[in-house]
Specification:
This protein has about 475 residues and is α/β, with parallel strands linked by helices. It is built from 15 helices and 11 strands.
Length: about 475
């Protein structure tokens, strides 16, 4: 393919040359080798014909392969850089994702130079890679050294159709319309999910256990997980030894159980409300082959003021949209504001870009019983309230009930237990009961307290042993 002769390509190469720095380290080259030329042409053609959905991944593979040959002197770095940029733009990738992907792939490929004997014609080339002492299981495949016919310059119409494809309505109607679940009803594939809570409820503990089960493909909370997944846990909150390791040990897990759980602890990512931060996160997902990312906690992952709507609009434009385009599920952890009834703290736009919002809260003040309640959702979710028991030995969560009645019953039982523990008689009034609950830090509505008093008063009481003996 003669990319230089295509005026559409030429304009993009010229623009690139004035705006982006070449990341490739120059390598002495006495002109591109025959093999290098054939390999570069082949990789560019493969990239140019990649279907939507896999283009950024293919750019990473092609750049990796080409970088190996740049490092061994078979390809001129400037020619490769301009050609890869040109084709990547031509197939519709954005400038930010192109630059991040190329730089990441170059760093990996240049560390593993591939030396081959340069022979002609290229169709007869037999690759002789240098053995890699530390082979990577996900290393991209070798390039295909084949010649192809030149491609005619594309028209404006072809460019628009390639860059801005419209939905095929017939194809859309033929697709299965059932939601694809990773963990029903919490985590759906390709969706953006929020789990938020007041401080000290234990959302990080809950989410860590969830991440482990998803990574292992093991049933959790009474639900079957579709398959093991590589999960990227981006942790801005928890000390690796004092918090994360201790919790995993209490759950009964060791290092060999966590192969699919990839954790970034206190990462040096740029703000995820910036293009650079979004590209860094996407690159991490691609390198570690993760299709789920959990961000703990989202307010620490952005540069902008969390109370400003512009921050969350920028987060979606950069990170949220990029993850959706690459079919990566995102789970964001967050806190409530001062008024818990108003949901997540921060700007109202924070809730506008996600598909489901769950609130985790205590039912009992000791945290042994929790409520997970759906605030809002874009998709159909049947179980909108789950009551969870937190068990300590081994540490885990289990479903105690589903639905609003389960939450109501759990709160009523907590109040009854508190009245019993503090020796209140059966005729206690709601005012005294409320004073006790307030002193214990138990928050409850008047109707809940009244129901607890009613049930406690009406339940059968055993007569004292002495009275039973006297009657006899």
């Amino acid at each position: 393919m003669d990319y230089a002769s295509n005026p559409f390509f030429s304009r993009m190469v010229k623009t690139h040359a004035t705006s982006e720095a070449n990341p490739f380290t120059p390598t002495p080259v006495d002109g591109p080798s025959n093999y290098g030329t054939a390999a570069l042409t082949s990789e560019l053609d493969i990239l140019a014909n990649t279907m939507p959905g896999g283009r950024n991944h293919q750019l990473n593979k092609s750049a990796f392969n080409i970088s190996q040959l740049i490092a061994s002197g078979h390809i001129d770095p400037t020619i490769a850089w301009d050609a890869l940029n040109t084709v990547a733009r031509q197939i519709g990738l954005t400038e930010s994702e192109i630059q991040a992907t190329l730089k990441s792939a170059y760093g990996a490929g240049s560390a593993q130079p591939r030396h081959v004997d340069d022979i002609t014609p290229p169709e007869t080339v037999v690759l002789q890679p240098v053995p890699n002492p530390n082979p990577q299981p996900t290393q991209p495949a070798e390039p295909h050294a084949t010649e192809t016919e030149p491609v005619a310059p594309i028209s404006l119409e072809d460019s628009v159709r390639e860059h801005l494809p419209i939905l095929d309505w017939h194809a859309l109607w033929e697709q299965d319309d059932e939601e694809e679940w990773i963990l029903e009803p919490l985590i759906a594939k390709r969706r953006g999910i929020v789990i938020y809570s007041p401080p000290k409820v234990g959302k990080s503990l809950f989410s860590l256990e969830m991440a482990v089960h998803i990574s292992r493909g093991e049933p959790w909370l009474g639900t079957t997980i579709d398959a093991p997944h590589n999960v990227l846990y981006v942790d801005y909150e928890n000390d690796p030894r004092g918090d994360t390791r201790a919790r995993l040990q209490a759950m009964g897990y060791g290092p060999d159980d966590l192969q699919n759980l990839k954790m970034l602890s206190f990462p040096t990512l740029d703000g995820l409300d910036t293009s650079k931060g979004a590209q860094q996160l996407l690159a991490a997902c691609q390198v570690y082959e993760c299709d789920i990312v959990i961000i703990d906690t989202i307010s620490r992952a952005v540069d902008g003021d969390e109370n400003e709507n512009d921050t969350w609009l920028a987060f979606y434009r950069n990170t949220g949209l990029l993850l959706k385009q690459n079919e990566i599920t995102m789970v964001r952890l967050d806190h409530t504001g001062k008024d818990e009834s108003k949901g997540q703290r921060g700007g109202s736009a924070k809730s506008g870009d996600v598909d489901a919002i769950w609130k985790l809260s205590k039912v009992t003040e000791d945290g042994s019983k929790l409520q997970l309640k759906l605030d809002d959702a874009r998709m159909q979710i049947t179980d909108r309230t789950l009551i969870l028991d937190r068990i300590t030995d081994p540490l885990h969560h289990k479903v105690a009930g589903a639905g609003q009645m389960a939450a109501w019953d759990a709160k009523v039982n907590e109040i009854i237990q508190a009245l019993d523990d503090h020796g209140f008689d059966r005729d206690v009034g709601r005012g005294k009961a409320r004073e006790l609950l307030k002193g214990l830090g138990i928050v409850a509505r008047n109707e809940t307290i009244s129901e607890a008093i009613r049930q406690r008063k009406n339940r059968p009481y055993a007569l004292p042993i002495e009275l039973n003996q006297e009657e006899k």
